[in-house]
Amino acid sequence: MTAEFATPYRRASRIPAEPGKPYFIEKGEGDRAHLFGDLFTIYAGGEQTEGTFNFFTCEGPKGDIIPAHLHPDTYEVFYVTAGAVRLFVEDTEGNQQEKLLTPGDFGFVPKNCPHAYQMERHHSMVVGVAAGPGGTFERFFENLGVPAEELGLPKVPAVPEPHKFGTVPQRYDVKFLPEHRWHTTP
C-alpha cells in the first residue's frame, strides 16, 4: 500500500508534490494519463526533482506515428521494455535516422532535434526520461490528453480538442512540426 498525496495537478497522487521526500510507487500506480491510444504513467517529475528530470512510461498498441515534434530545451531518452517502437530522429544539420527499438534497446534525442515514434507491435512499452534547462514536460500528457484513474489503455482514443494544440505544448517545451516530413517511410 502506498500513501496518497494531494497535488496541484490531482486530488490524489502517489507522488509527493514537494522535493526531498523519498517514496515508492507500486507498478502502474503513478499519475496516469491517456493521450491518443496510449497510457502515460508518471513516476517522478519536476516537482520531485526540482525541475531536473522526469521518469515516465508510455504503453500503447500498434498504431500510427506520433506527430513530429521537438523540445527546444529538453533531452529525451527512449528505452524499450516490451514490444517494438520505431524511433525517427533528425539532428540539427537535417540528417534523418530511424531505428526499430526492441526490448533492451535505447534511443537518445538531444534538445532541438525533431523526432517522432511509432508503436510497431501491440502492447509496446517505452521508459522515458526527459531532462534539460527548460525543466520537465511530464504534465504535458494529462493536459493535452486526459487524466486517467483506471489502469490500462484507453478504451476509446483520447483525441485532444484542436484548441489545445495551440496552447498546451508551449507550456511544456513541446513544439509540434506539422509540415515536417520524414525521408524514410513510417
Automatic annotation (TrEMBL):
InterPro entries: Cupin_2, QDO-like, RmlC-like_jellyroll, RmlC_Cupin_sf
Lineage: Bacteria, Bacillati, Actinomycetota, Actinomycetes, Pseudonocardiales
Any matching Pfam family: Cupin_2
Stored PANTHER family: PUTATIVE (AFU_ORTHOLOGUE AFUA_8G07350)-RELATED
Gene3D superfamilies: Jelly Rolls (2.60.120.10)
Protein name per the record: Cupin type-2 domain-containing protein
Domain Cupin type-2: 61-120
